[in-house]
Amino acid sequence: MSTLSSSAAGPQAASFVPSNQSEPSRRRVQRWPLELLADRVADARELFTARANSTKFPVRAIRYWWAHCALLDEVRAQGRPITIADAGCSTGHLRRYTGHIDGAEWMGLDWKIEPEVLRERGYSSWQECDFDRPLPLADASVDAVVHLHVIEHLPRPEFSFQELARIVKPGGVILAGSPAMPPILSRLRERQHRANLARGKIAIGRHINSMDRPRWIRLARENGLVPEMVQGAFFMRWSGWAMENHAWWLRLNLAWGSLFPSLGGEIYLAMRKPL
After folding, report:
1. Which 3-state string (H, E, C) describes 26-59?
2. For 189-214, how does the pLDDT look when each residue is reduced to its tens digit (9 = 90+)?
3. 204: helix, strand or coil
4. Residue 36's domain is classified under what CATH number?
5. pLDDT digit string (tens) for 2-39?
6. How far is CA 169 from the centre of its chain?
7. Which residues pair with 32 in a beta bridge?
8. Residue 3 lies in a domain
9. How many other C-beta atoms can be found within 10 angstroms of the C-beta atom of residue 109?
């Protein structure tokens, strides 16, 4: 099997062996190398709190590691250069974490763009946009969208996700993630968020939605996407805890997240647009 490189990301990234995308998602995640997480955290410690970056395998880095491995898999599966839209890029945290990925061109999307920062971090293009309005991109214009921990801040998540699905090419993928909880608790939490928003206790930009596994699956299917992977993140997270220096501890958390995505604190999904 061919390998992919992430040349700014150390030897583990250079020797990353992509998983078989036809495998069950639970098995794919368990095959992804945790050494890649440790290497990238060591290189990008400024992205994490002092407590989180004091350990080798911080649970708080799972979101970046998951997206990184999924993108490496995607480049291999496509067999050609791909364009990645980082929807909610901020100052390029994800691109800073991943380092260079051969065969990937990055586009940053957010409501406020700092061009010099994104250029320095390796983005080749960017667009200022409001995720509550139509995106300034043509239909089927990107191969992959990464949308991590953004949707819970948006006033119309269904509309925003519809726009993300619109810009993905047939055969492309959306990699998304958010905080998560069981559906009944999620509905109660969203009512609380919306009530606080109506009373002026919180503003747009804070958490105003609450996502759960069924809601994500529904969003995918309503927009013609096929969920390929649904992964929870952890059952226990305590930044700086000594247990986060052990790979088996992170594997145990990931196994829990695979079995019980709604009880995994955070949820991550790969959703494919059919050809």
Report:
1. HHHHHHCCHHHHHHHHHHCHHHCCCCHHHCCCCH
2. 999 999 999 999 998 889 999 999 99
3. strand
4. 3.40.50.150
5. 334 444 444 345 445 555 555 556 678 989 999 999 99
6. 18
7. none
8. no
9. 27
